[in-house]
Design a protein that fits this description.
The complex is a heterodimer of chains A (237) and B (304). Chain A has 237 residues and is α/β, with parallel strands linked by helices. Chain A has 2 domains: 156 residues, 3-Layer(aba) Sandwich (Rossmann fold), CATH 3.40.50; 54 residues, no CATH class. Helix content of chain A is 33%, strand content 29%. Chain A is built from 7 helices and 10 strands. In chain A, α6 links the parallel β7 and β8. The longest helix of chain A has 16 residues. Chain B is globular, with a radius of gyration of 20 Å. The chains are: A alpha/beta (237), B alpha/beta (304). Chains A and B meet through β1, α2, α3 and α6 of A and α9, β9, α11 and α12 of B.
Chain lengths: 237, 304
Amino acid sequence: MENHYLLRLEHAAKTFVLHGLGGKKIMGFRDINFTVRRGESVGLAGPSGSGKSSIIKSIYRTYLLSHGHIWYDSKYYDGIVDISKIPERAVHLIRTNEIGYISQFLRVIPRVAAVEIVAEPLIRNGVPEVEAKKVSSDLLKRLLLPENLHDAYPSTFSGGEQQKINIAKTIVWRPRLLLLDEPTASLDTHSVSIVMGLLKELKEGGTAMVGIFHDAQIMNDFADTVYNIDRGFYVEQ
Amino acid sequence: MTNNIYNPYLIREDEKLKGLTEPYVSIQNLTKIFGPSCPMCIEQTGPEHETNKCCTCGSIVALRKISIELYPNEILGIIGESGSGKSTLVRLLHFDMDVTYGEMYLDPLILCQEVIDHTKKDIFTLSAFEKRKIRNKLIGIVYQNPYMGLKMDISCGGNIAEKLIEYGWRNVNAIRTRAMELLNRTEVPIDRIDHSPKTFSGGMQQRVQIAKALSTNPKILLLDEVTTGLDLSVQAKVLDLIKKIQEKLKITMIVVSHDLGVIRLLATRTVVMKYGTIVEAGLTDQILEDPQHPYTQLLVNSQL
């Protein structure tokens, strides 16, 4: 391979068709091109509604692309695949093994303890339960989640505490590519700096990231390259 | 945290060997017509005609040429309104009814090996005896209505024993131990083992059904609206149980539900059905956040 990219968006475009409104078309983003290398962090900036989240969701295949390609160099597949085209089963396997996504919301099965939620991806992949729980508990401790909450159900948590679970349950398995959609929006400054520290550690370990942060300070801290997105188009910076 | 780039545990060898796109179970053109059926049935029904009833012969087309693939260790969600054919599909896979036409193939290496000696054969064409063998060995089912899955005039342990005996177990003590182990796993109080399920609450009945379905270590578990009608706290418990079982036992599951929340939490892939047809299939989050078909959009936008 000459070009050692991990992720490459090529003329990516997304249009939503709303059948309920007589087939009305809404543009998500158009002609997005960028490349993410191993261990690189890319930031997406721009006003609300400019299509940043849609781009991230398309990389995760939550949204189906209308045009273009999302090339990803998969370890599992042992080669480059187009995430927007490969079968759902393959996407699922890549998601559970390589690509992590952290959104602003926590969605989990009710009445499962916080530490179990975080340990789940490890246990699923064969880590012994005791060890997985210990790793998870340590991570939650680092995120300053009070220890007496580790065995409680997250539905009773505050927004910030829930978000810590959300962050922990993805970074615990160290994905190769991490997609971040404002993960720090509901956190206090001290927690934000801890999260940024954890992200930096992941980055040093080789994880590539694509992230959205509204806070310019955090964005500067996080990104090697920032792309400004405005009304679905982008301007390089 | 160490500085390993990859977690060594994260590539599962079994799946890697299996390849990425090789299905466990492949179902093709599955069709079920109730009634006399005529050549026009398929053409005159479906979402574009907004009916299930063939206007020539009056037959009800419950399933129209469904093709589904199941992969190892995944949960497939099926959503759709009442009458869309969800339950019929599940029951056909459990051989409760005969198919009108359609084919089902099981992975010859993993699933058929000890069950039937001929590989790559359409399962629906096998004899009733062989189908029963496959069902006993591979498939478990939990019905929406506990009265369909359990016999209410025998004890809860007896219900589980019945399935085990059909499977070939003969030792009474072994059967009882197994039943207790299963009830323990599904969190049914062991001291109720000799009581009739009639005296159980709905949630407990569902958990007995799950215990019964799991008794023979199936590879495929069919869950038909298991949480419908249960109160929220019991629903949460059953959902958690299903997820845990799936993770521990690595069973492939089909979860039928009209509750999008249940599907979101459990299923990795989801199929949307209407008038016996699959109108859309995809990853669950894609179906729920970027639905393509007008019906799926309507369904998702109607969610509370």
